[in-house]
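From: lab user (bench 3)
To: helpdesk
Subject: output format question, protein + Phenylacetyl coenzyme A

Hello, I'm new to running complex predictions and I'm not sure whether the block I got back is the full result or only part of it. Here's what I submitted:
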Amino acid sequence: MSILELEQIFLDKIEREIKIEPKDWMPEQYRKTLIRQISQHAHSEVVGMLPEGNWITRAPTLKRKAILLAKVQDEAGHGLYLYSATETLGVTREQTINDLHTGKAKYSSIFNYPTLTWADIGAIGWLVDGAAILNQVMLCRTSYGPYARAMVRICKEESFHQRQGFEILLVMSKGSPEQRAMVQDAVNRWWWPSLMMFGPHDSESTHSEQSTKWKIKRMSNDELRQKFVDMIAEQVKFLNVTLPDPALKWNEERKHYDFGEINWEEFWNVVKGNGPCNRERLAARKKAWEEGAWVREAALAYSRKRKERAAGQTAAA
Ligand code: FAQ
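Helpdesk reply: Thanks, we reran it on our side. This is the complete output you should expect:
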């Protein structure tokens, strides 16, 4: 079959909402786009464990500690599903991780901000997981089968994450004046970086047009960001705090909240590696990879041994 015919079959599948599977023919650029996006998503999940991991030993009660541990473990699991989904596209996990360590691959800008107080853990759950869910609900319908299926499970866990974050803030907002001040301070610091998670304005988004045609993306960066603002502007009313944006206002004509301009200079600065914690995050991941080498070697040796044993038993039978 000619490339043109193969491409037509691929485009027909996209048109008819049939998922593209690993063994199907796909344009090289579709494969590359998916490797970029899914691996960066995986890196985000794994790097995303670091800001919260900082509070496992300092969670205020045993119950909070158990919940946070479970949440951070979930993020590791999400990273693993996504690394596996990336591998179905023909790259090895080592290549993918090497791209993170050498700075070739990105991860979400949001994880380059520090977690200064316990209220930050609430703000991450509420705002960061909240933003992640909106984006990921859309990705449950993405055109590549393994990515879409991974997203279904991830979304279930993320909605638990968001509720636990909101509940942390709700409890604190009913506490002492100091606790309420901590909630306000955390919301002030996490609000704008959360809006940046959706990526640049549609007019600046280099990949959106093609990714939308291939149904990798189903909603634009700005559409999702607006949905997030509309959702959070209502939820914040229960927390007795305000969002740090004087321009935030319901627009009756648009039936959406208007909001202020994002500091794009800050966004690109963080994306380029110059945020408050970029160097620390990357150093932590490299250290974990190097110190975990013996575990990977042991697992490989064990699997080799099992295969040899099984082969020996078959030969003897
Ligand atoms: N940070 O043309 P676009 C989570 C880059 S998971 C850094 O619009 P695209 C769970 C972009 O890569 C959060 N870089 O790109 C959790 C591209 O550069 P490249 C992660 C960003 O792909 C919660 C360039 O800018 N979620 O939070 C960012 O069409 C709590 C141009 O941008 C995902 O990864 C950014 N924020 O749209 C864990 C979801 N935004 O690659 C722990 C999957 C853009 O050419 C605790 N990804 N860039 O070098 C996506 O949906 C898309 O990739 C977007 C960006 C929407 C992020």
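A quick orientation on your result: The chain is about 70% helix and 0% strand. Let us know if anything else is unclear.
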